[in-house]
Amino acid sequence: SLLDLILVSDPNRVSPIEIGPPLVTSSLRTHCSLRFEIISKASRQKPFDSRCFNWRRANYASMVPYLIDIDWKTTFETSSIQNSYSAFLQTFFQASSLFVQKRKSPRGLTKPPWWNIHVAKLIRRKRRLFIAIRTNKEDLLLLGKYKLVCKQVK
User: Fold this and answer.
1) Could you tell me the pTM of the whole model?
2) Residue 18 maps to a domain
3) Which of 31, 65, 103, 146 has its Cα between 20 and 30 A from that of 49?
4) What is the pLDDT of residue 74?
């Protein structure tokens, strides 16, 4: 038999099962890999993003007593590892919010969403052609290239 049993509370929660390549080819018994998706309405929790905090300017002297005062034994008494991990992240995020300053994003340095490498190359080329035209005003070939790049940038 290829598959003995998959236990689910509702058969509509599992997509059709696909049999993949064998896990070990050298043994007498070959065990195949299985591929399926579990359909769930549970939303993923937003992950803890430590990049928004300025850890160099944190008040660790105040953070340590705050974390020591937490009853970790009751925090981790839950039955599942995922719940314990989520509780730890929530507690750590609260401590970080209290004792670590947030980074301030430089407003002038952020690029608009339509900005990409291709647009940046076109704008650099446009600037170079503009400077070249200013130094040599009689070159019609440069002027034609400049007008073409101007149309592409728009």
Assistant:
1) 0.41
2) yes
3) 65
4) 87
